[in-house]
Amino acid sequence: MTDVTVLGLGSMGAALAGAFVDAGLRTTVWNRTPEKAAPLVARGAERAADVAGAVAASPLVVACLTTYAATREALEPAAGALAGRTLVTLNSGTPAAARDLAAWAAGHGARFLDGAVKNVPSAVGAPDTLLYYSGDRAVFDEHEKTLRVLGGDTVHLGEEPDLAALYESAVGGILLPALLGFLQGAALVTARGLEARTLVPYSVKWLEMIGSVLPELAREIDSGDYGEPASAIGLFHASLDEERALGDEARVDVSWQAPMHDLIERAVAQGRGDQSISALIELLRAA
Known about the structure:
- The chain is an alpha/beta fold.
- The protein folds into 2 domains: 4-170, Rossmann fold (3-Layer(aba) Sandwich), CATH 3.40.50.720; 173-286, N-(1-d-carboxylethyl)-l-norvaline Dehydrogenase, domain 2, CATH 1.10.1040.
- The chain contains 13 helices and 8 strands.
- It has helices spanning 11-22, 38-43, 51-56, 68-75, 95-107, 137-147, 163-172, 175-190, 200-223, 233-238, 240-250, 258-269, 280-286, and strands spanning 4-7, 27-30, 46-47, 60-63, 86-89, 111-117, 130-135, 153-156.
- Strands 3-2-1-4-5-6-7-8 form an 8-stranded mixed beta sheet, sandwiched between helices.
- It is elongated.
- It starts with a strand and ends with a helix.
- The model has no long low-confidence stretch (mean pLDDT 95).
């Protein structure tokens, strides 16, 4: 393992730096607000006075800022110190933004890996915490042992520098609809005077069921064969009026579902009612 610098000490960045410190690595930290470094310094981290000093302190630089643009903006004053170092970005953004930052880093002589932490800050360092990376495989192999400190389920997706951003966007799209679905359910049960916590075990079971059917949906998508559905689009279409009526009955705003309902209605209008729900991807591709 190697010395490491962490740029950005929000809740996730602080968790990353803390994991490196706990692993016994010489860890340098930097944040625009220096006071955020104090708890980490108390645990053994070293605080850099400026971003250039932070970059110069370690051969491995992990940036955990908000976006690729924010990462580049923070690193601009330290561009001259990047040569010969490895820059790992763990932030949000589009694949195009990841490619742009990879090219910028290469232009300053840095090697580049992009990545994503697929869990909450408190899970950083756990054996089952997933992080995936993309970029030069040789660079990943060189630093894998150090990066694995952040989570035991550490994966290299491929050589293209934007693959982590691509998968982060693809997987991340599941989050908000799932959370809104839970919040709608909580609104329904709390409107009856029941506690939201009573919904949790059944919601977890439902999410596990959804997880169990994803391989079959993926198989249908990859083959383009939607003709033998376990769940047909027409089944979902038949329940739309009841879903809208439930919102009126419980005085819960279900308007966030309108675009999904529209997608199903358009699929039925195209004659896809007997096809698998996975066939909706054909409408998404045409959008």
